[in-house]
Each structure stands twice: as structure tokens, then as C-alpha cells.
Amino acid sequence: MNCCVLAGRLTKDIEVRQTQNGKTVGSYTLAVDDGYGDQKRTLFLPCTHWQCEKIAQYMTKGKAVIVRGRLQQREFQDRDGNLRKFVELNVQESTFQQGNTQGSNTAQPNPQPRRQQQPLPPDNDAVPF
User: Fold this and answer.
1) Residue 18: inside a domain, yes or no?
2) What share of residues in the chain are helix, strand, coil (percent, to 5)?
3) CATH number of the domain within which 15 lies
4) How many C-beta neighbours within 10 Å does residue 20 have?
5) Which of 7, 43, 69, 73 is the most buried (most CB within 10 A)?
6) Which pLDDT value is given to residue 111?
7) Geometric angle at alpha carbon 86, from 82 and 88, rounded to 5°
8) Model-level pTM greater than 0.85?
């Protein structure tokens, strides 16, 4: 199975172009943090997003997004004739993270109020699980 879910920030505005068949494709790089403390590093992953004309105006530098897609490997020959390979994420679905105001001039209101946490039941044998 080839399924990948990543959360990160866009490093620049999405670059949108049309294919010869008239389909819209966008490309961008997603900065994803990996690890903790001294071991923390940031991965910069190239992404391709098909039929993105509706969301392209919102995909700007600094936006926090969650993307789901599949990894694909492409090959090409460089100027010296060497075979080069690279891996990119072919995005099938993207979602903006809540509270995402970086890279935007206006704050987005949270449409759903936060639910109150329910107290835990007393610690006794009456709990059915």
C-alpha cells in the first residue's frame, strides 16, 4: 500500500500551470519537522497537486496544511546524461490546519466551539470495561 499523510508548512506559494491536455497541476515544497530536541530536522518534500485550481489561491507561503497522497519516483537524464531519480508526493487531498493565520492577513474564526472535557468516572468496579 502506498499512502502517505504529512503535516507541514508551504515554503512558497503554489506554482500552478496547465498541461497540454488542459489539466491544472500545482507544485510546491512542504517543510515537515521530523524528530525531537537535538535530533530535530526539517524535511523539504516536493509535492504535486492535480486539479488544484480552486485551492491554489489559498495555498500561500507559510500556510500549515495536512496532505494525503502517494509517493512516486520519477527519473530523468541530466545535462551530462546521468540518470537522476527523485521522490515526490502526488497529493490527492489537502486540508488547512485550524488556527492557520500565518501567511494570511486575516485570522480565520474557528467554526466549531471546543468541547468541554468530561470528568472521569470514579475509580471502582462499576466501570463496565
Assistant:
1) yes
2) 0, 45, 50
3) 2.40.50.140
4) 5
5) 69
6) 46
7) 160
8) no
